[in-house]
Task: inverse folding
């Protein structure tokens, strides 16, 4: 590892972007072409060969998918592009969540045949939530059934976005040659050779009417963000390309529309114009700052967010986005979330699996930090003299449980240490001890995520484990309100225990979790005991009332109570609250909830009936059908418990011609089975 200082780049020429997509849309292939086009790599790594630069983890190369987000830095037209390539599989959605939390812009890759797919839609909503400006890249336009304009319509209809078409495809399917650039009124064609420069041509005569119509739409939308150019255009003056690009940039940064580009990354067509669009249209750090985000001032007091933890034999690397100030080697910073001070031992600029040591990281930088002991994903790092807290990173709740145990008793402690390391790296993995069986339970978002975690235990941490069959992570909730008064009284010769609470439970909407509040007035219960009541409620809720599953989606309100001057304590009120919660929940018509998945099955038309019949047998509710190219897409809601092993049955039903994707949608009352 070589100590060096990264090239100094003006903040206005810095772009922090993510590449996001549904699995198999060509996201990593696009990133590999970007690395080659910018000179960062001198050979193209192919995903299908297990040689992609960004998929450097052995499991990624073996499976041909991205499992963890990977960062790299490239330079294009004098701008520094910090790129994070994210997974497309739903099981690794936490990687997309934490990347979008710290990025300034994103490139969303769409499959030109499939269009808007479930995980693309989920990722799009996450980007909406963080206010991240986007560019859409419609990929794979050389494939049979690709339809650029249908994908544009899907972006508008399914994502609720306003697509701004900047390019049209030149040719289709096997005849896809390149793109028509509407801004510059020119046709661009590529030979298909890696890194080849586009050959510029006049717009073909047969396409001029279509190009003029689409360019008129483009100009009309873009000039809403340039009053002077709009007035000139209305007077008959065409805006020059540089004016049009400036207006497109303002609209993109403001979130008014999403520029749409075309290409085929695998055929090396359209990648350089995509890089141009990243520089021209996506924001610099601080240019599109979300509410509550500090101003990107390198001279200000430090404000940074840890968004990813990677552990290896040398310790932990903390991937960090610096929002304000400058992070330097040797600095002592405040972990404002954890409430302790940490020292920066080393700083790295990361290029996939390579690290370049640097001395300082100014505002806008994305770097890896070595030396932190207790920093976790979502923790804020601040100047000790100017503490602040940034918005944390939301973590999705797990839906699948897996019991794990070491094969030998000697590995018990090593297993606990390894599981702790995995959970530190991936906050969507949860580890707990089952109160009844004493088993260690590993919980996650899907079978693939847990499979990868087990493989990591064996290969990275050298712990052999036995694992049970995956089980659905059930929840419990209540269906009506209940009020209960409980007195906890204990006398055993010494100081007694006394606490009296009146607790009201009320059902809430799905996804609300557990909310606690109180209406204590007049000193019925001293204020210092109220946190103990909340702790008792949450402890009881975690262990359930029907079958030991966590109780969710309810409001618990402490309405009244009583205390004793000598015998009341925090412990007494915690015990009283836990007992009151269990008794009240039992009276509130509790039910068990199971996770329900949004499923999309892509099948040849002659197998649609078989697919729908099989989904019905799995308690699925079909919600619609659509045609994509030559295939039919069936959309349904299906309980997760009915989907274990589904891919094998689906292939058997359709002679191996169908595929499916699923994403968690909601919890619903579990069907009563005898």
Result:
């Amino acid at each position: 590892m070589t100590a060096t200082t990264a090239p100094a780049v003006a903040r206005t020429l810095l772009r922090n972007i993510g590449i996001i997509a549904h699995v198999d849309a060509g996201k990593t292939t696009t990133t590999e072409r970007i690395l080659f086009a910018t000179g960062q790599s001198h050979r193209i790594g192919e995903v299908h060969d297990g040689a992609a630069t960004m998929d450097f983890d052995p499991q990624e190369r073996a499976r041909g998918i991205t499992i963890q987000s990977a960062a790299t830095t490239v330079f294009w037209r004098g701008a520094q592009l910090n790129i994070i390539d994210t997974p497309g599989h739903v099981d690794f959605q936490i990687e997309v969540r934490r990347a979008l939390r710290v990025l300034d812009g994103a490139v969303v890759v769409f499959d030109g045949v499939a269009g808007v797919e479930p995980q693309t839609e989920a990722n799009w909503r996450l980007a909406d939530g963080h206010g991240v400006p986007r560019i859409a890249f419609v990929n794979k336009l050389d494939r049979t059934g690709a339809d650029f304009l249908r994908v544009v319509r899907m972006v508008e209809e399914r994502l609720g976005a306003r697509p701004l078409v900047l390019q049209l495809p030149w040719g289709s399917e096997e005849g896809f040659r390149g793109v028509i650039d509407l801004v510059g009124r020119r046709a661009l064609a590529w030979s298909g050779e890696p890194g080849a420069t586009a050959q510029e041509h006049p717009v073909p005569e047969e396409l001029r009417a279509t190009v003029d119509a689409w360019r008129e739409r483009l100009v009309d939308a873009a000039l809403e963000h340039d009053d002077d150019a709009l007035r000139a255009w209305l007077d008959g003056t065409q805006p020059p390309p540089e004016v049009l690009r400036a207006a497109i940039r303002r609209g993109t940064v403001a979130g008014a529309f999403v520029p749409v580009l075309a290409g085929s990354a695998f055929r090396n067509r359209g990648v350089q114009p995509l890089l141009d669009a990243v520089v021209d249209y996506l924001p610099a750090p601080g240019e599109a700052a979300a509410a509550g985000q500090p101003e990107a001032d390198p001279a200000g007091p430090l404000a940074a967010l840890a968004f990813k933890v990677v552990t290896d034999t040398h310790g932990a690397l903390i991937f960090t986005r610096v929002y304000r100030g400058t992070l330097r080697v040797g600095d002592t910073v405040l972990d404002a979330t954890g409430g302790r001070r940490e020292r920066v031992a080393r700083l790295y600029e990361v290029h996939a699996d390579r690290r370049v040591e640097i001395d300082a990281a100014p505002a806008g930088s994305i770097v890896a930090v070595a030396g932190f002991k207790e920093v976790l994903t979502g923790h804020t790092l601040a100047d000790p003299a100017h503490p602040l807290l940034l918005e944390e990173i939301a973590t999705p709740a797990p839906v699948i449980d897996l019991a794990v145990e070491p094969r030998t008793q000697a590995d018990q402690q090593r297993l606990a240490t390894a599981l702790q390391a995995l959970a530190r790296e991936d906050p969507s993995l949860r580890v707990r001890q089952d109160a009844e069986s004493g088993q260690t339970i590993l919980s996650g978002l899907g079978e693939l995520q847990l499979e990868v975690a087990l493989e990591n235990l064996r290969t990275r941490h050298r712990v052999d484990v036995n694992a049970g069959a995956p089980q659905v992570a059930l929840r419990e909730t209540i269906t009506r309100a209940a009020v209960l008064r409980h007195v906890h009284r204990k006398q055993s010769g010494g100081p007694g225990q006394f606490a009296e609470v009146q607790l009201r439970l009320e059902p809430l909407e799905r996804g609300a979790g557990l909310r606690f509040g109180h209406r204590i007035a007049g000193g019925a219960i001293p204020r210092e005991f109220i946190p103990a009541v909340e702790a008792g409620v949450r402890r009881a809720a975690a262990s359930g009332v029907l079958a030991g599953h966590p109780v969710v989606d309810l409001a618990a309100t402490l309405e009244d109570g009583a205390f004793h001057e000598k015998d009341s304590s925090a412990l007494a009120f915690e015990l009283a609250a836990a007992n009151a919660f269990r008794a009240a929940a039992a009276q509130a018509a509790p039910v068990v909830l199971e996770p329900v998945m949004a499923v999309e099955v892509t099948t040849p038309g002659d197998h649609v009936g078989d697919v729908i019949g099989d989904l019905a047998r799995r308690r699925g509710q079909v919600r619609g059908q659509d045609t994509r190219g030559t295939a039919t897409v069936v959309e349904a809601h299906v309980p997760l418990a009915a989907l274990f092993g589904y891919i094998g049955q689906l292939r058997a039903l359709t002679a191996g011609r169908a595929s499916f994707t699923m994403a968690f949608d909601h919890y619903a009352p579990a069907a009563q089975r005898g």
About this structure: The two ends are 62 Å apart (CA to CA).
